Structure formats: structure tokens, C-alpha cells
Amino acid sequence: MATRSDILAKAASLRALFEAQGAAVVEPPILQPAETLLDLYGEDIRARAYVTSDAMRGEQMLRPDYTLPVVQMHMAHGADPARYTYAGEVFRRQERDPNRANEYIQAGYEVFDRGDPAAADAEVFALIQGALEGLPVTAVTGDIGILMAAVAGLDTSASRKAALMRHIWRPRRFRALLDRYAGKTPMPATRAALLASDGVITAPLIGLRSLDEIETRIAALRADATEPALSRTQVSLLLALLDVRETMPNAISQLHDLAVDMPAISDAVDRVAAREKALAARGVDTGNLMFEASFGRVSMEYYDGFVFGFRAATRPDLPTIATGGRYDALTRRLGQGGEIPAVGGVMRPGLMLELEAGQ
């Protein structure tokens, strides 16, 4: 089993690899201000963060990953374009799986560049793939932006689109909402009773919501109840999109076919096609590279475009060895009016050594 010294040495070698590509080495503090980060992290990471309180600095959290602190740093005073690399500890609760480490070493590479997003995507993917060369891993790619474009193009209310958009990263909840909006599932009896009432609240208020907030929510439910159901065609097309799972060239062909009936996804599909060309130009065998339209919907909540992961082919029990993706919207949220296209990826040197030892 690899020692901590072995893992740190492997992480340092990965950082040196990325530094050789022109990346500046950064080391955000292990303790991070919690307020902003807790709002930005996805539900999965937020529920697993270690949070503590400091009398002088308020709520603090142990760094659950590097990407958000690096984005904050860059948007405050970074160059344009810029590349960063890092290696160090991250901390995540593992209450669902106590056999997984709650502290481990992470190494990564982040690119902030307005020039050519497809080329930047390919750069990050190809560098990480090269660093994993010789290990028994399989790569998978996806694009959250296609699904977001499909939801934005639905013929339904803005509030329903917003609800579906919020739950893109929670597949079960997303499907439940889709079925309800399509009229496939009946309205819950409690909601039906509420909407059938006169709406006057006479019971004492319990909880944190004010009377105004409750009445606003009831009004929103009444408005939603009058919305026509999503058409069977729209639902079928969206489900067909989610089912796309093919090698990249075949997936792009399927996506182009779907775009004929879903014009809202056309631009996003064109971006995937441009990325495929950029990956091929970097020497990536895109003919055997998998594309899954649903990939990244569980634990990649701040990604809004290209997503990728490298899984251990011989060890399905292990977490993903490396992950990454595009997070343009995150730079807008942290940029205080500024924004820049950004993409990055992280690697688990400890898992890499474990795979090496098992070969």
C-alpha cells in the first residue's frame, strides 16, 4: 500500500507536469470562508463538507476541493489568460461509505482562456489522459450544456424550466418532475386539497417561513396547476437525449439527429463536434472515446458544459481516478460582473498508485 510520502511524491510529479505546460503553482489555504462556498458547492459536496466556527472569521470549512478557491483567486486578481496547478489535501465526509477516505491528496490543472473553448477542453483532457497513460482506466465524456439547452427550449413556463434546471444534477428528482409536468403522475392528495381550499391560513405558523412566503408559494402552486402538460413528443425527445451513450462520433451523429426536432440544442451539439475535432488534433482516439449524455449529473454540479471522468477498468470499487469539466457560469457568479471561460480537471494520485500496484 502506498505511503503518504509516496502519494505526496506522485502529486508533486503531476504538479510538475502541469507546471511544465505553463501553469502557475497555487496553494489556497486549507481553511476557507464557508458562507460563499457553501452556496456554490453542489448538494453532494455541501453535505460532506467539514464546517467549523471561528470567533473572528465566522464559519470556516476545510477545503473540499481546489476548483472554487482557485476560481475565487483568479477572478479577484488573475491574469487573462491563465493556467494554474496545485497539489494538496482535500477533506470530505464519507458517511454513506465509511470505507472511503475522508482526507486525500488531489492534484489538478485549471485553464482560464477566452481564445478557443474547444481547444482548452481538449488541452485539459489530453494532459490528464497522458498522465494516466499505462494505467487500466477508461474515459467517458459528456456535456451538461446540452441538457441545459434542452430544458431551456421546452415549451413550458419559466418556473417549470427553472425547477428542472435546478434538479439536472439529481436524476431521480428530475425524472419525477418531468413525469409530473407531463401529467404522468397524479397531483399529491395534500397539494390537491390545498389548492381546492380557499387559501386562507388559520393554523398557527410553525417553522421559519413567514406568512407572506407561504402565501407566495401557494400562489405559485395555483399558477403551476393551470399549466398545460408537457407534450409526449417533448418528453420523448428529452428522454432520448438522456439515453445517448455511444462512442463520440456516433453520439454526435445521434445528437445532430435529435437537434432536428430540438433546435434549442443545436449550438451545444456544435460545441461537442468542435471539441471532438480538437481532441483528435491532440491525438485522442475519439473513435473509441465514450460520450454519455447523462454523465456528470450526480456529483459535478458546478460544471455547465464539457465533463469527463476516468474510471478504473479493473477496480469498479474505486472512486473515479480523475474528473473535470467546464465551469463558465461559476466564473460569472464569482466574478462580480466579470467572467471568463474556464475548464479544469483533478486527479487522485493515491488511487493512481493503488492501480499501479495492482497491475
Automatic annotation (TrEMBL):
<dbReference type="InterPro" id="IPR045864">
    <property type="entry name" value="aa-tRNA-synth_II/BPL/LPL"/>
</dbReference>
<keyword id="KW-0808">Transferase</keyword>
<dbReference type="GO" id="GO:0005737">
    <property type="term" value="C:cytoplasm"/>
</dbReference>
<dbReference type="InterPro" id="IPR041715">
    <property type="entry name" value="HisRS-like_core"/>
</dbReference>
<feature type="domain" description="Class II Histidinyl-tRNA synthetase (HisRS)-like catalytic core">
    <location>
        <begin position="218"/>
        <end position="345"/>
    </location>
</feature>
<feature type="binding site">
    <location>
        <position position="110"/>
    </location>
    <ligand>
        <name>L-histidine</name>
    </ligand>
</feature>
<protein>
    <submittedName>
        <fullName>ATP phosphoribosyltransferase regulatory subunit</fullName>
    </submittedName>
</protein>
<dbReference type="GO" id="GO:0004821">
    <property type="term" value="F:histidine-tRNA ligase activity"/>
</dbReference>
<dbReference type="InterPro" id="IPR004516">
    <property type="entry name" value="HisRS/HisZ"/>
</dbReference>
<feature type="binding site">
    <location>
        <position position="297"/>
    </location>
    <ligand>
        <name>L-histidine</name>
    </ligand>
</feature>
<feature type="binding site">
    <location>
        <begin position="302"/>
        <end position="303"/>
    </location>
    <ligand>
        <name>L-histidine</name>
    </ligand>
</feature>
<feature type="binding site">
    <location>
        <begin position="65"/>
        <end position="67"/>
    </location>
    <ligand>
        <name>L-histidine</name>
    </ligand>
</feature>
<feature type="binding site">
    <location>
        <position position="92"/>
    </location>
    <ligand>
        <name>L-histidine</name>
    </ligand>
</feature>
<dbReference type="GO" id="GO:0016757">
    <property type="term" value="F:glycosyltransferase activity"/>
</dbReference>
<feature type="binding site">
    <location>
        <position position="106"/>
    </location>
    <ligand>
        <name>L-histidine</name>
    </ligand>
</feature>
<dbReference type="GO" id="GO:0006427">
    <property type="term" value="P:histidyl-tRNA aminoacylation"/>
</dbReference>
<dbReference type="Pfam" id="PF13393">
    <property type="entry name" value="tRNA-synt_His"/>
</dbReference>
<keyword id="KW-0328">Glycosyltransferase</keyword>
<feature type="domain" description="Class II Histidinyl-tRNA synthetase (HisRS)-like catalytic core">
    <location>
        <begin position="12"/>
        <end position="172"/>
    </location>
</feature>
